[in-house]
Design brief:
- It is an enzyme of class 2 (transferase).
- Its EC number is 2.7.2.8.
- InterPro entries: AceGlu_kinase-like_sf (IPR036393), AcgluKinase_fam (IPR004662), ArgB (IPR037528), Asp/Glu/Uridylate_kinase (IPR001048), Glu/AcGlu_kinase (IPR001057), NAGK-C (IPR041727).
- By secondary structure, the protein is of the alpha/beta class.
- It contains 10 helices and 14 strands.
- The chain has one domain: Carbamate kinase (3-Layer(aba) Sandwich), CATH 3.40.1160.10.
- Helices cover 41% and strands 27% of the residues.
- The strands form 4 sheets. The protein has an 8-stranded mixed sheet, with helices on both faces.
- Helix 4 crosses helix 5 and helix 7 runs parallel beside helix 9.
- It binds adenosine-5'-diphosphate and N-acetyl-L-glutamyl 5-phosphate (X2W).
- The site of adenosine-5'-diphosphate has 21 residues, from helix 9.
Length: 289
């Protein structure tokens, strides 16, 4: 009996959060590095389905970088990253599109369906959801061509609003399209930040494979709160590096676009989304303006 009463208590504790977030949009970015086991993936999809059923409007943006890398290796194609972005030639683009839409997106959609949710998978190419142009990288002041990497110009969010305001959970793959109809590979954190801003989401949660932002990639600590100025200092010092760069930039873009809350959280913790949303302290790193 005591156990049951405790369970009821936990549910009641969530009430103020449920009331506050009812009808609000939350954008969740699920990074490839956090998709480490079927069990964890299941728990993340359970959380997202639960959020939908209690009245929030979750929109999921997924990555899949490790899967793309593994498939490229199997095809004998070399892959290189510049400023955290994959250099994407014609062949790499085809593989990225195949893996993201043919594998990752559909696996997630199926998992949500198994949990009883209604998920609809789409990429930024569908309905011209993500309009982009070619992105160049800046390496020590030099402009570098990184191939078919997309710079987002516009999010045509109507389709997402339509789905999220209905019974659906949109599941978005990070691809975009330019005016000429060419497809582009876009970092999933960048996509999540831009979508959160376009939807004026209440929250953006970036799920990854570290407890949050640390004082350096190899440190054991965690920075609970960090602002824009501190972020740029760390990027300059090289203590925020690699895949963390597009993540923090995506977070800052979301804040600039009017999103109230941005968190980088450890997607390897079971039910990390519920812990972040329904506890006072939350988990991970909060990014502020
Ligand atoms: N200051 C930092 N704190 C934490 N992680 C960092 C930091 N700087 C760089 N990183 C790296 O960023 C990685 C997360 O980005 P990424 O590999 O792109 O993950 P995801 O697939 O979730 O997008 C971490 O595993 C870590 O190696
Ligand atoms: C341009 C670019 O870097 N695109 C990424 C898209 C996938 C992604 O961002 O996946 P994660 O979130 O799992 O890292 C890539 O090709 O890996």
């Amino acid at each position: 009996m005591e156990e049951l009463i405790k369970k009821a208590g936990i549910l009641v504790e969530a009430l103020p959060y449920i009331q506050k977030l009812n009808g609000k949009t939350v954008v969740i970015k699920y990074g490839g590095n956090a998709m480490i086991s079927e069990e964890l993936k299941n728990k993340v999809m359970e959380d997202i389905t639960l959020l939908k059923f209690i009245g929030l409007h979750p929109v999921l943006v997924h990555g899949g970088g490790p899967d793309i890398s593994e498939t490229l290796t199997r095809f004998g194609i070399q892959s290189e990253f510049v400023n955290g972005l994959r250099v994407t030639d014609d062949e790499t683009m085809r593989v990225a599109q195949m893996v993201l839409m043919g594998k990752t997106n559909k696996e997630i959609v199926s998992l949500i369906s198994q949990k009883g949710g209604k998920a609809l998978g789409l990429s930024g190419i569908d309905g011209e959801l993500i309009e982009c142009e070619k992105q160049y990288a800046n390496v020590d002041g030099k402009i570098v061509d990184i191939g078919y990497v997309g710079k987002i110009i516009k999010i045509n969010q109507k389709v997402l609003e339509f789905l999220a305001n209905d019974d659906y959970i949109p599941v978005v793959a990070p691809l975009g399209v330019d005016k000429e109809g060419r497809s582009y590979n876009i970092n999933a954190d960048t996509v999540a930040g831009a979508i959160a801003a376009a939807l004026k989401a209440e929250k953006l949660m970036l799920l990854t494979d570290t407890p949050g932002i640390k004082s350096s990639p190899t440190a054991d600590d965690i920075i609970y709160e960090i602002n824009q100025k501190e972020i740029y200092k760390m990027i300059e010092a090289g203590t925020i590096a690699g895949g963390m760069i597009p993540k923090v930039k995506g977070g800052l873009e979301a804040l600039a676009g009017g999103v109230n809350n941005v968190h980088i959280i450890d997607g390897r913790i079971p039910h990390c989304l519920l812990l972040e949303i329904f506890t006072d302290s939350g988990i991970g790193t909060m990014i502020t303006r």
